[in-house]
Amino acid sequence: MTAAFLNRRQLLATGSALLAGGTIARADDGAVHVTIEKLAFVPAKIEVKAGQTIEWTNKDPFAHTATVKGGWEVMIPPGKVATHVATADDSVDYYCRFHPNMKGRIKIVA
Ligand SMILES: [Cu+2]
After folding, report:
1. Nearest-angstrom CA–CA distance, 14 and 1
2. Ligand 1 center–CA 99 separation, angstroms
3. Are 2 and 24 in contact (CB under 8 A)?
4. Beta bridge partners of 84
5. pLDDT on residue 32
6. How far is the CA of 98 from the centre of ligand 1 (A)?
7. Quick one: pLDDT at residue 29?
8. pLDDT tens digits, one per residue of 14-38
9. Average pLDDT for residues 61-90, to the nearest whole number?
């Protein structure tokens, strides 16, 4: 009588986790991405369509805002993402309320 011992090898299926939900690297969700790093909006100038989402990712360890004088303001906490859905009249300059030297520009395109 022989006992067959099956030594199982565990195949490590290291599937690269490309499905990170809400990842900011991909642009195919239709959003336009702006990174905030070292007190700057990058890119500083973006072109978006009305209805498109602008998504700011704050990589700094402190809060920033995207503020339009006389208009809207988006608070972007440290390490977080914040969004604004562009409207037809959103061809605007914006800045950070806390760091007025931080400036960005949005241009609405058809
Ligand atoms: Cu700021």
Report:
1. 39
2. 4
3. no
4. 54
5. 97
6. 5
7. 59
8. 333 334 444 444 444 589 999 999 9
9. 98
At the fourth CATH level, which superfamily is domain 32-108?
Cupredoxins -  blue copper proteins (2.60.40.420)
Ligand 1 centroid–CA 88 distance in Å is 25
- Give, in order, the Cα–Cα distances in Å from 109 to each of 5, 52, 58, 90, 94: 68, 11, 25, 10, 17
Domain range annotation of the chain: 32-108
CA–centroid distance, 8 to ligand 1, in Å, is: 55
Q: Please, which residues have CB less than 5 A from ligand 1, an ion? A: 64, 96, 98-99, 102
In the Cβ-directed half-sphere of 45, how many Cα atoms lie within 13 Å? 2
